[in-house]
């Protein structure tokens, strides 16, 4: 019964989304408060219904209800509970339901936490959000229904793709979706602002925390996704410039640009048109990503050709939402009032430059991802655009951004003094140069790695120059410092950490140049040296997991003769799908990692092994965590400031306020 | 005057960034794109030796030979034409006879394709289109091959 | 119960719209928030100035800017517009009709209110009388995995496998039953039948042996004799087949359902011209294939009649459509397609497979 009630709840959610698509907009056009007031409760109940539907599907997976096609195709009764739950979004139908769940979660969050928002703005934002929700629920119900039933239920399912049976996958899609879909809110804000024609600091103030939430999730999601690829694909690589990865990177670039741009708009009411453009762009790129991944046009052109309904449906959604919003944008953008003035050398100017570079980077990724598709569609010629393309386009554009970052932080609003800022950054810059020189003398190695490491050190130190100056400037006592620290807005700390995080990631990336890789056949008892360590392959141990059997190659890691740790790289066999998967053995030693994957276990116990030593590789993901931490710091600051706005309003407008 | 100047600076910065990007993209596209051929196309187009290529098709059943060390040799087929591929290194998990595969490398004068990477897709159902089409024509396209997809 | 839950859900959904429409309006005007925000901005500029993040003259300028906006926002405060009762009523009525009608009609077309949940554990624990076939099989299989000596279980499973088209499993189950429980004519016959099914209708030598053993122990049993006749026919021994089947028909009990069909077969065998000595060599080459065709046709007809009784077997339908195409009978293939779609209407997954096959075979439209 829970299955059918879940199905009905989803249908009902569609009806409510349609109601919310119309009534609040009608209210805002007719300036009728009652109609506008409909939006928040409907958004909340709509979220409840979608959440229930999602819960119902999850339950069906948990209890192995094989009367659902979705469960049969993607689950197995012997699968561990955690993968029964994560398997819900490990397939097309379930992941689309998760998409809609996150979409309505954001609508509900806006309904709950934006009580202080202007009524018409809130009504329009929730209405636009409901348009998107309605389109996607319709998509689910008509083309990818997870609640499709099977008359004669089998007793066993096909199991989940073993690659997806992994803790990394358990977290990364929901995080990515929080980011992807979180950008829908900024889109809704932009569309609502265009509809009402009012774009000002109020808009920027309210859109900023949502952008931040989306950006934090996206950052974490991408990092998690790359770590997952790193240790389940058994290749030792963490970023492949794969279209699926690019699909998540493009919205991240746009969201990063948007994040900086809303700061300018909030403070200075400048760059209005640009902000709106970016808000629309960011979500459009999310939609494009969804289309690329979900229509199957990328991974398997065949899937798109043989079952075009899904692809065409998403394409239609894409055209309507992207086309519609840009048309509205073209119509309205001209009529916007000019904002505050600023000199080219100023924080605004730096952010403009940042935005230019970020969007250009985004454009190159977009080109590299879609050019092969376009070429194939036009000429039938099939090409692939691999890492060399991106290394040649994306990287040179990103380097100036790194150089620019500390400058942006130090430049004051409106008008700045470049020489003065450069002077303050001299320490960081010098440190970077010294680091480069030391590295080159001590380790040698590829020039790119040396240069990038120097840049990374400069970025990390440069990120904190402003903070240090604000806290310790003028040689003051400890008391003064703590007092100043309390006085500083938290977003100042947030900015510093986020920028430093990026520098740390860069350092991790640069260090890959000093890594070592060996591909070799190992007999039991054989030892091999990699980096500063010696690995002894002892024996192959057969083991049984809940729904797989594995051969683990026990390997001892020694450093200068002393045992450091043991790793168990394994190849797993999943009988239901008759698939093999390797499970890399990874030992994190300091900030570096020894990574080993094995294959082709021979009868005499010998294996083919791929072994890496990756110095500082952990920094790549630690940097991402620090970026996200910085984002959270800023977020806590922003929510605090919205609180002020609410109190101020209450004090000013002593109208009777109902409790709810 | 201030406003005009600002706009000028903005526009020129934008143009500079865009033209830089455009230049890089064109440069990269000229040198770094890799054409993708199926075995039949490869036989028909006969690209000159040494050009980087990607080929895709099915690993022919029974064609995988371990040549000692880490080197393997197998045939990629679209059921009409075969290409012999050699590769040194670890094969990805999803590599199996009778399954789709994409290899990147160069075609030697001996008409043997020397692969330096065998692509493991996130998606086990990755299948080059011409292979899929060829297979469909022969009626060997397998049912249930389009079950779950993953959520990345 | 299900419909009660639907009703509650629908009511909550409709109420979420009606409730704000009925309440006295309240809301925040844009200007008020603008004022609060610009005030906060002013405060921040002052703080920045105190910490010397901005130059004093720039701070003055920024302050002037924010103050200007503050004044503009203050002036823009407009009285909140009145809410119209008529519009609210109109919306209430519209929504109260729209939501239930849309939800129920859409659900009626895509939902399966008649299908209860089927969690695996409950299916396996159900009382035997109410258990579905798949669950029952799974249960017996689990039991047999632990008690591989239980011949009864294999004997029960073999014919079930056979009916489900799992011929390979049927063979091993029938073999196990024969081994564990001892030889009886019925078990020999069953084993033979599974072998024939596994060989896709061909009576293999091993199957023939098994039928012969069954017929030797119980010469009156009809089934082994039918298959022995079939074996003879497939070997090209028309006379032998006619003889075996002829006797079988003659001894058939009154009104046996298979007698009529068999009689026709015998007649068909007799209709052909008797093989003459000089044409024998040519004939014997042609015959095995002709015999096989007959066997295939026989199988296809059996499959068709089985599907006519139980239409839920997707694999069966796919096989049937394919077989008709192989036999160059597009008309029958099309009608089988239509029957399959009608029978499997409740199963979207199956429909997709049927349609894919139709496309592959060019039977669309």
Q: Would you write up a description of this structure?
A:
The complex is a heterotrimer of chains A (660), B (152) and C (365). In chain A, the strands form 2 sheets. In chain A, strands 3, 4, 5, 6, 7 and 8 form a 6-stranded antiparallel beta sheet that branches. In chain A, strands 2-11-10-9 form a 4-stranded antiparallel beta sheet, with no helix packed on it. Chain A has 4 domains: 1-165, no CATH class; 170-409, no CATH class; 417-512 and 620-660, no CATH class; 516-614. Chain A has helices at residues 2-30, 33-36, 39-62, 69-74, 81-86, 92-113, 119-143, 167-196, 201-232, 243-268, 272-294, 301-306, 308-333, 347-379, 387-410, 418-442, 447-472, 478-487, 490-511, 618-652; strands spanning 383-385, 516-522, 527-530, 533-544, 549-559, 562-567, 570-574, 579-583, 585-589, 592-599, 607-614. Chain A is built from 20 helices and 11 strands. Chain A is of the alpha+beta class and 660 residues long. Chain A is globular and about 80 Å long. With 152 residues, chain B is an alpha+beta fold. Chain B is elongated. Chain B has helices at 2-32, 39-45, 129-138; strands at residues 33-37, 52-59, 65-66, 71-77, 82-88, 100-107, 112-119. In chain B, a hairpin with a 4-residue loop joins strand 4 and strand 5 (82-88). Chain C is mainly alpha-helical. Among the domains of chain C are: 147-271, Serine Threonine Protein Phosphatase 5, Tetratricopeptide repeat (Alpha Horseshoe); 287-361, Alpha Horseshoe (Serine Threonine Protein Phosphatase 5, Tetratricopeptide repeat). The interface between A and C is large, with 90 and 86 residues. Strand 1 of chain A pairs antiparallel with strand 1 of chain B, so a sheet runs across the interface.
């Amino acid at each position: 019964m829970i299955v059918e009630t879940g199905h009905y709840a989803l249908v009902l959610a569609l009806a409510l989304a349609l109601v919310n698509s119309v009534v609040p907009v009608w209210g805002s056009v007719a300036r009728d408060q009652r109609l506008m007031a409909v939006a928040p409760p409907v958004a909340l109940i709509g979220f409840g219904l979608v959440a229930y539907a999602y819960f119902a599907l999850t339950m069906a997976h948990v209890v192995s209800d094989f009367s659902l096609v979705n469960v049969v195709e993607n689950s197995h009764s012997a699968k561990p509970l955690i993968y029964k739950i994560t398997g819900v979004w490990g397939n097309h139908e379930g992941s689309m339901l998760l998409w809609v769940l996150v979409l309505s979660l954001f609508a509900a969050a806006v309904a709950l936490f934006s009580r202080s928002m202007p009524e018409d703005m809130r009504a329009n934002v929730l209405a636009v959000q409901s348009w998107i929700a309605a389109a996607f629920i319709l998509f689910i119900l008509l083309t990818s229904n997870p609640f499709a039933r099977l008359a004669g239920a089998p007793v066993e399912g096909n199991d989940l793709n073993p690659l997806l049976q992994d803790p990394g996958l358990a977290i990364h899609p929901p995080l990515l979706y929080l980011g992807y879909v979180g950008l829908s809110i900024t889109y809704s804000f932009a569309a609502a602002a265009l509809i009402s024609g009012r774009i000002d600091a109020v808009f920027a103030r309210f859109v900023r925390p949502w952008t931040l939430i989306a950006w934090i999730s996206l950052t974490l999601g991408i990092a998690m996704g790359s770590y997952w690829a790193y240790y389940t694909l058994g290749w030792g690589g963490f970023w492949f410039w794969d279209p699926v990865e690019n699909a998540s990177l493009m919205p991240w670039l746009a969201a990063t640009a948007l994040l900086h741009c809303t700061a300018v708009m909030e403070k200075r009411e400048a760059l209005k048109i640009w902000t709106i453009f970016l808000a629309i762009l960011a979500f459009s790129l999310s939609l494009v990503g969804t289309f690329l991944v979900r229509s199957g046009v990328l991974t398997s052109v065949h899937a798109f050709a043989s079952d075009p309904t899904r692809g065409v449906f998403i394409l239609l959604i894409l055209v309507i939402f992207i086309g519609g919003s840009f048309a509205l944008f073209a119509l309205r953008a001209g009529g916007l009032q000019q904002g505050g003035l600023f000199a080219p050398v100023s924080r605004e100017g730096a952010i403009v430059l940042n935005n230019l570079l970020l969007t250009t980077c985004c454009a190159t990724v977009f080109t590299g991802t879609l050019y092969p598709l376009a070429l194939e569609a036009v000429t039938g010629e099939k090409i692939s655009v691999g890492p060399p393309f991106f290394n040649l386009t994306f990287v040179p554009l990103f380097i100036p951004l790194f150089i620019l970052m500390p400058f942006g932080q130090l430049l004051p609003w409106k008008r700045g003094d470049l020489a003065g800022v450069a002077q303050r950054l001299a320490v960081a810059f010098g440190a970077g140069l010294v680091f480069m020189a030391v590295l080159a003398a001590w380790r040698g190695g590829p020039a790119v790695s040396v240069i990038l490491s120097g840049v990374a050190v400069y970025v990390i130190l440069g990120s904190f120059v402003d903070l240090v100056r604000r806290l310790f400037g003028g040689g003051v006592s400890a008391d003064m410092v703590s007092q100043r620290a309390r006085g500083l807005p938290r977003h100042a700390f947030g900015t510093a950490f986020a920028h430093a995080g990026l520098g740390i990631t860069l350092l991790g990336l640069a260090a890959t140049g000093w890594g070592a890789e060996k591909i070799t056949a190992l007999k039991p008892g054989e030892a091999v040296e990699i980096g500063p360590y010696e690995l002894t392959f002892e024996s192959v141990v057969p083991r049984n997991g809940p729904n797989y059997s594995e051969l683990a190659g026990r390997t001892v890691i020694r450093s200068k003769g002393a045992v450091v740790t043991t790793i168990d790289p394994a190849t797993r066999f999943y009988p239901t799908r008759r698939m093999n998967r390797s499970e890399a053995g990874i030992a994190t030693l300091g900030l570096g990692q020894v990574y080993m994957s094995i294959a082709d276990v021979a009868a005499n116990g010998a294996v083919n092994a791929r072994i890496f030593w990756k110095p500082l590789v952990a920094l790549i993901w630690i940097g991402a965590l620090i970026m996200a931490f910085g984002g959270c710091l800023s977020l806590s600051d922003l929510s605090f400031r919205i609180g002020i706005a609410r109190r101020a309003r209450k004090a000013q407008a002593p109208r009777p306020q109902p409790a709810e | 005057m201030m406003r005009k100047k600002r706009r000028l600076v903005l526009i020129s910065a934008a143009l500079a960034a865009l033209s830089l990007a455009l230049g890089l993209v064109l440069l990269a596209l000229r040198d770094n794109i890799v054409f993708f051929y199926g075995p039949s196309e490869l036989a028909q187009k006969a690209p000159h030796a040494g050009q980087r290529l990607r080929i895709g098709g099915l690993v022919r059943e029974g064609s995988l030979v371990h040549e000692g060390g880490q080197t393997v040799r197998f045939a990629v087929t679209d059921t009409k034409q075969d290409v012999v591929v050699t590769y040194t290194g670890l094969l990805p998990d999803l590599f199996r006879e009778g399954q789709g595969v994409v290899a990147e490398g160069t075609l030697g004068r001996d008409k043997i394709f020397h692969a330096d990477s065998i692509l493991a897709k996130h998606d086990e159902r990755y299948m080059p289109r011409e292979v899929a089409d060829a297979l469909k024509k022969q009626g060997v396209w397998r049912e249930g091959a389009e079950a779950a997809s993953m959520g990345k | 119960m299900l419909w009660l839950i639907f009703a509650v859900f629908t009511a909550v959904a409709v109420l979420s719209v009606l409730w704000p429409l009925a309440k006295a309006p309240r809301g925040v005007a844009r200007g008020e928030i603008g004022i609060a925000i610009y005030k906060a901005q002013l405060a921040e500029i002052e703080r920045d100035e105190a910490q010397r993040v901005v130059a004093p003259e720039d701070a003055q300028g920024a302050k002037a800017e924010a103050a200007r906006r503050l004044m503009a926002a203050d002036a823009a405060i407009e009285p909140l517009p009145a809410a119209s009762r008529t519009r609210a009523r109109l919306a209430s009525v519209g929504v109260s009709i729209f939501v239930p009608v849309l939800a129920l009609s859409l659900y009626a077309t895509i939902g399966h209110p008649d299908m209860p949940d089927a969690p695996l554990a409950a299916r396996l624990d159900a009382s035997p009388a109410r258990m579905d076939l798949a669950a029952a099989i799974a249960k017996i299989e689990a039991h047999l995995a632990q008690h591989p000596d239980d011949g009864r279980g294999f004997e029960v499973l073999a014919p079930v496998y056979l009916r489900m088209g799992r011929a390979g499993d049927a063979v091993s189950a029938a073999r196990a039953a024969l081994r564990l429980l001892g030889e009886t004519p019925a078990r020999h016959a069953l084993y033979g039948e599974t072998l024939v099914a596994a060989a896709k209708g061909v009576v293999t030598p091993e199957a023939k042996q098994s039928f012969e053993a069954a017929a030797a122990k119980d010469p009156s049993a009809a089934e082994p004799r039918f298959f022995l006749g079939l074996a003879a026919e497939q070997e090209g021994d028309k006379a032998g087949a006619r003889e075996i089947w002829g006797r079988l028909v003659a001894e058939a009990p009154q009104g046996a359902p298979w007698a009529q069909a068999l009689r026709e077969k015998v007649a068909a065998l007799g209709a052909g011209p008797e093989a003459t000595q000089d044409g024998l060599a040519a004939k014997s080459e042609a015959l095995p294939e002709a015999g096989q065709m007959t066997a295939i046709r026989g199988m296809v007809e059996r499959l068709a009649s089985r599907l006519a009784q139980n239409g839920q077997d997707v694999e069966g339908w796919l096989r049937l459509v394919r077989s008709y195409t192989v036999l160059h009978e597009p008309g029958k293939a099309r009608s089988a397609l239509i029957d399959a779609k009608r029978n499997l209407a409740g199963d979207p997954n199956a429909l997709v497979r049927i349609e894919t096959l139709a496309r592959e075979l060019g039977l669309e439209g």
